[in-house]
Specification:
Structural class: alpha+beta
Number of strands: 10
CATH class: Alpha Beta
Distance between the termini: 16 Å
Oligomer: single chain
Number of helices: 4
Length: 168
């Protein structure tokens, strides 16, 4: 977790104490990410050839979620796979819970997209039965029902216990 210093804002000759609201900012970043193409591409050399390993957003769910979580240091680094993101989440203190709370990370079951192209999916629960995750069809984050309208089962729900302290 980031150790934020208190910020001071000068208004005429007044100094005001400003305390960052990290959890609220995290949720705002998630909500504001909808339709962003920021996470569509991640390039790597594969067998010596430059390749977009996100396939223009088709495989960007872990890149999206881990980027949002790495920004305030809720995890150690950005990832391109669901498994490495989940590993980092658990190592960073996130715990499994039975019911989602606003800000939880959702991991959906593996799905075969044909030709043995099998992938898990990851997103962020925003409350009121809704989540935001990257759409493999559109290539960017969208808001949707947290259970994907029953099309895909949520396998794991992760919560950061530090959030309980931040919401005071």
């Amino acid at each position: 977790m980031i150790n934020y210093l208190y910020l001071y804002m000068s208004t005429q000759n007044n100094k005001q104490k400003v305390i960052p609201l990290i959890f609220e900012t995290y949720l705002a970043v998630v909500r504001n990410s909808v339709r962003s193409k920021l996470f569509q591409n991640f390039y790597a050399k594969v067998n010596g050839k430059k390749t977009d390993i996100m396939r223009n957003g088709e495989l960007s769910c872990a890149f999206y979620v881990s980027s949002v979580l790495a920004l305030p240091k809720f995890i150690k680094e950005v990832h391109t796979t669901v498994d490495s993101t989940v590993k980092d989440l658990k190592e960073s203190g996130w715990k499994e819970v039975k019911n989602p709370k606003m800000g939880c990370i959702l991991i959906w079951e593996k799905t075969d997209f044909g030709d043995n192209d099998i992938h898990k999916h990851i997103g962020i629960f925003i409350g009121n039965g809704k989540a935001i995750s990257n759409s493999y069809k559109l290539g960017y984050p969208i808001k949707h029902r947290w259970n994907l309208s029953g099309k895909r089962k949520v396998d794991i729900i992760l919560w950061n216990p530090k959030f309980d302290l931040k919401k005071q």
